[in-house]
Write a structure and sequence with these properties.
homodimer, alpha+beta, HIT family, subunit A, ten-stranded antiparallel β-sheet, 6 helices, GalP_Utransf_N (chains A, B)
Chain lengths: 336, 336
């Protein structure tokens, strides 16, 4: 039994923007296993996200519905509700709150966005028109929340499958808006600002044209969007999707480009499902903060399959060990 | 069905040293579950870590054995071998390598330390004398590797149970030594240096006396060691263990204090197993870097139970959502 399955040796790689390191270590994926980590479905009761079960959730805060339907009843296509088990709670901050203290109330908005009234597990089970409308709801809800003076930042994300942290199977997304820019994102923005000052162009535009020119990490290109496995991938088969044209905010997208994005996302997810055997995954939508002017930022989507996972070394050092070279990951996902 | 199980509201908390934020959100733990994530043991072949199966591993690089036993055969108590599926590989760096480039070979040392010849799953199944000897092997191996001129840093860690990233059940530890100080740790060290310059004392000593005086986050105190749930816990039931007396390096510990530490660790792990139903967990041993002078650092052990897990929001923002207030976690772990 050989120690390393490929002829490639481990490699340290550093993200030139953030300074973040990863170790790409192809031998790690060959480890023997004492455990069967396959999960079983156990739900027996009604799914709170299925059409007809609207009373199982909190009242809707936004929905796309058929003209004759009533709020909080059937007849919707996408439905946004407050998370019943929230990480943050809405409410007005006290007049003297500064958010500079080391401890303050967990104010913010934690939405659940039910992607579809049908009980499907994946965006790939939906029509392109449905995914496009879902993206448009993301856009509308972000635009709405950006008017809340105390909110600074929002992340829209999906946890798909229990290995990715999902507790419910029915396809859904989450939006978490908070009164601060997360320090990690703040550092990235600051690095991007310095880069664009120094280089005279957007870091992400430069990255994108390098990836497009090189080609070995490209997963697919479609109608104004590029999906690739980043050189400094933290996770096996990690994929980033960028709009080819520089744009700071996802919320500023036009209806036409939303449907191209829907097609791109579906193609990438189909590649993951087909080539990797339907793993769980997280999807992250990184858009600019609500109030800060960040023309040097370029919005993106990250997809993080739960094939490898963080353990002691990652938690202890912040350096991820990724068992799959991004170049090989992209090749696998291209099916070539 | 109420949204929040306790009367406590979510709270943002910031680590005063590192600036890292967490959200403590007690309502999150009440979520319904579509999935049974219980794992099953599947191994049928011989365990590579059991006594008698030494040929299943790479040759030992260090072992504590009975005087008449032969290397790589039975008769050992603790055994250190090179990881067969390494994240980094030993070898001499090229003469011109700088480790400042954005990509370099994954050089370093990745050991597996087999805690005991017997097939047990936990340090709590071992005698105190055995755990003490294991800690002494940690000490000896760190001291050995600190003499390798190209290595700057090592983390010793344990992944226990599949939810914590372990692939094998037999109790074992890992040591990963690399040619750089991880940036995350570098930032912590720099913050600790500035703190001690400004305040005239070690940050961690100050933290420790505050926790000891307050008491509500203390899990236990034993013979020169204090275990508590940090104010800014990333994970539910996270526990940090510090030596009460300032010490930069774990490797400098005396034999007497090693056995007190062994007792402390076992008591903390017994509390986790008894009160939380034997979850998986990671153990991290943070000691000073090999070559950098860091008198302002205070070594510690972190124990991270896999009760809550990182998902989309954590990966997207670096802000952890922890469903259990550390004050309640400590109370639960104390059994009071």
């Amino acid at each position: 039994m050989g120690a390393i399955s490929t002829d490639k040796k481990p490699e340290f790689r550093k993200d030139p923007l953030t300074g973040r390191w990863v170790i790409i270590a192809p031998g790690r994926s060959q480890r023997p296993q004492d455990y069967d980590t396959a999960v079983r479905r156990v739900r027996s009761g009604p799914c709170p996200f299925c059409e007809g079960n609207e009373s199982e959730t909190t009242p809707e805060v936004l929905a796309r519905r058929h003209p004759n339907s009533e709020p909080n009843g059937p007849g919707w296509r996408v439905r946004v509700v407050s998370n019943k088990y929230p990480a943050v709670c809405s409410g007005m901050p006290a007049a003297d709150s500064t958010f500079a203290a080391s401890c303050f109330p967990g104010l913010g908005i934690h939405d659940v966005i039910v992607d579809t009234p049908r009980h499907v597990a994946s965006l790939t089970d939906m029509a392109i028109s449905e995914v496009t409308e879902l993206l448009d709801v993301f856009r509308e809800r972000l635009a709405q929340l950006s008017n809340e003076p105390y909110l600074e930042y929002a992340l829209i994300f999906k946890n798909v499958g229990p290995t990715a942290g999902a507790s419910l199977e029915h396809s859904h997304s989450q939006l978490l808006a908070i009164p601060m820019v997360p320090p990690l994102f703040g550092s990235e923005l600051e690095a991007a600002r310095r880069w664009s000052e120094r280089e005279g162009q957007c870091y992400y535009c430069q990255l994108l044209s390098q990836e497009q020119a090189g080609g070995d990490r490209i997963v697919l290109r479609h109608s104004g969007f590029t999906a690739f496995c980043p050189f400094v991938s933290r996770f096996a088969y990690e994929i980033w999707i960028f709009p080819d044209t520089h744009a700071e905010r996802f919320e500023a997208m036009t209806p036409g480009s939303l449907s191209s994005l829907a097609e791109t996302i579906q193609s990438v997810l189909k590649a993951i499902e087909t080539r990797l055997g339907k793993p769980g995954y997280n999807v992250l939508l990184h858009t600019a903060p609500f109030r800060k002017k960040t023309p040097y930022f370029h919005w993106r989507i990250e997809i993080l399959p739960s094939v490898s996972r963080a353990a002691g070394f990652e938690w202890g050092t912040g350096i991820h060990i990724n068992p799959v070279f991004p170049e090989e990951a992209a090749q696998t996902l291209r099916g070539s």
